[in-house]
Amino acid sequence: MLCLRVSLNGQRLTTAGLPGFGVVTAMLHWAHFEEAELRHVSDVTLSIGGSEGESLLGWHDGPVRPGDTVTIEVCEAAVADAPHRTSLSKEDGANEVSRLQRELQRLETRLSEVREALWLCGDG
To answer: Per 3-state DSSP, what percentage of the chain is helix, strand, and coil (rounded to 5)?
Structure first.
């Protein structure tokens, strides 16, 4: 499978890839902003993530400092590292909750039918 092998200062961080359909990304984020005490803050973060179906995936999130070298190699690999975190997007999570609520309602209706059948048989 096609993967992203990411290293920081020569140390391999992860080999991110998916065996099926999905998205894998490697991004550097730089932010310069002002905090409450009028302090200026600069932040550089390396994020390796992606998505597969309804799941959001994360292999790495960490700081990068001036002088660091980030290497992203596009490679073929038989196996990729497992992501460290997975979650559903808010919209997909809401859809999953709705699906589970419908399934619960269906099962409660079926349970009620089974209890009634047992009662009619004299076993309830």
So the answer is: 25, 50, 25
pLDDT of residue 8: 97
User: Bridge partners of 65?
Assistant: none
Alpha helix segments (H runs only) across 1-124? 90-120
Check if the beta carbon of residue 59 is closer than 8 Å to that of residue 45: no
pTM as predicted: 0.64
Please tell me the least confidently modeled range out of 31-35, 58-62, 77-81, 88-92. Answer: 88-92
SS3 for 66? coil
Helix (H, G, I), strand (E, B) or coil at 118: helix
